[in-house]
Amino acid sequence: MVAILRQYAFLYVTHFFTFSMLIVAPMRAWQHQLYFVPMLLLPVWVTSSVLWSEREGSEQFLRTLPATNREIVRWKFSMLAGACVIYWLLMFLFVAIARPEPHLVGVYMRFITYSAVSAFSFGLLAYIGIWFFGKNPMTAVIVMFMLVWTAFTITVISGTKSGRYQTLTELPIVSMVAHMPKVTPLVLLGLAGVAFWGFTEVAVRIRAMDSPWD
Amino acid sequence: MTPVVEMRDVVKRYADFSLGPVSLSIPGGCITGMFGPSGSGKTTLVKILANIHRADSGTLQLFGHTYREREKEIKSRLGYVGEEQFFPRDRTVGWTARYVAAFYRNWDWATYRSLAARFSLTDDKKVGALSRGRRALLALAIALAHNAELLVLDEPTAGLDMIVRREILDTLRDFVSDETRAVLLSSHVTDALADVSDYVALLDAGRIVLHEEKDELLADWKWLHFRSDTLPEHIAGRLTLVRTGQLGSSGLTKEYRRLKAELAEAESSGRLRIANATLDDVMIALVTGR
């Protein structure tokens, strides 16, 4: 199973650097609050990684190897969760370095947490969608999602650059997240665990059905 | 001795095609060739065997167990060489071998290195740059390096040059010299694959219409070349693929051993000539005769 981890770790890391390269230059010129903009792009990064990991033939290849459906699902989902957690930690580091005003720390933390959770959820749904509907129909759906999400992110960034919003906390999306219910880390972890288990069970059952790609 | 593969009443339905019910038993120490026209269901059957497809009904046991009971163990004892290999095209041969090796406890690098050298597979070559034949050889090297006990090959020699084809057939012969191992190969053309097969199964329109030891089968199926009115009506009337020309007629019988005594006189007098049939002949006779 380490082999699966190694293959997909490479995948996520290369995608991470691709996205980082895209945003490094604009970030250098902007206010530190905009360091959080990558969080907005996290779902695009995650779903594109999922799409790439399920590229033509990879599923059939895995099916011929001695790994059970449960193991494959568990490792792919773990990889996805790991990627989101690493990105969350990175953003947490930015919060620590940026040293925002104390009352904003909670807002930032909620923003990065909910962003990571939504990216993880989108990634899980992308995997399940591909396994259930097949690669081809889901490619169109995921590409459409990525385009819409990117457009949304650009709109948000444009609002900040044009001076409509001075700081990250003024962005409607951040403001909306800031007013979402507070969840303690323990409850959040519990919810994540339940979601992981639930999605895994669904995915294992879907994969046990016949493969739709032939 | 438990058969390596035991398939009972396996059915798989698609919108436009239905396979089965198929029952098939594959013993150890031999090569079973499964032949049939394109679209007869060979690839579907092979994919069910390799657990790439699931059957709608019926039972399948490999090494005495079902996939539900011991999927991982069965897959680690099975080597699958598909019609098209699904190795990541953007990776090298060496990377692919290392990746796959991590899944198998019985992986033997010495065997892999020796086969890779024999098949001219270099570690730094991209899989996508390999020809179809070399990719099939890579799959075969991988299957043999993890000490598979059952090799399942789908159209293993289709489109390959004679040298690569010979490499594959020689390797298969070596493989089954161990009595516990078995090979199932499927093809829509019999050609050289028929030579190495010990058992032959013929699939047509989703059904197995024949499954027999090859030598027994070919001992029964013979061409009879004869002049008109040489053969008694009850024999001539039951021949298939009958052709009549100026020099006489010919037809295929599937009962040669039963009719041998009856035909002996005509044969010794030169009015009847008997020739061996090929598996292609048998296949055509059975498919067109249904």
Secondary-structure blueprint of this entry?
The complex is a heterodimer of chains A (214) and B (290).
Chain A: H1 2-29, H2 37-53, H3 58-63, H4 69-98, H5 102-133, H6 135-161, H7 172-178, H8 185-208
Chain B: E1 5-13, E2 18-26, E3 30-35, H1 42-49, E4 57-62, H2 67-76, E5 78-81, H3 93-101, H4 109-118, H5 132-145, E6 150-154, H6 162-175, E7 182-187, H7 191-196, E8 199-204, E9 207-213, H8 214-220, E10 222-226, H9 233-236, E11 240-245, E12 248-253, H10 256-268, E13 272-276, H11 279-288
Parallel strand pairs in B: 3-7, 3-8, 5-6, 6-7
Antiparallel strand pairs in B: 1-2, 1-4, 8-9, 10-12, 10-13, 11-12
Helix pairs in contact in B: 4-5, 5-6
Can I get a quick summary?
The complex is a heterodimer of chains A (214) and B (290). With 214 residues, chain A is mainly α.
Task: Give a verbal description of the structure.
The complex is a heterodimer of chains A (214) and B (290). By secondary structure, chain A is an all-alpha fold. Chain A is 80% helix and 0% strand. Chain A has one domain (2-210). Chain A has helices at residues 2-29, 37-53, 58-63, 69-98, 102-133, 135-161, 172-178, 185-208. In chain A, α1 (2-29) packs parallel to α4 (69-98). The mean pLDDT of chain A is 76. In chain B, the strands form 3 sheets. Chain B has a 6-stranded mixed sheet with strand order 5-6-7-3-8-9, with helices on both faces. Chain B has a 4-stranded antiparallel sheet with strand order 11-12-10-13, with helices on both faces. In chain B, α6 (162-175) links the parallel β6 (150-154) and β7. In chain B, α4 runs antiparallel to α5 (132-145) and α5 (132-145) runs parallel beside α6. Chain B is elongated. Classes of the chains: A mainly alpha (214), B alpha/beta (290). Chains A and B meet through α1 and α3 of A and α2 of B.
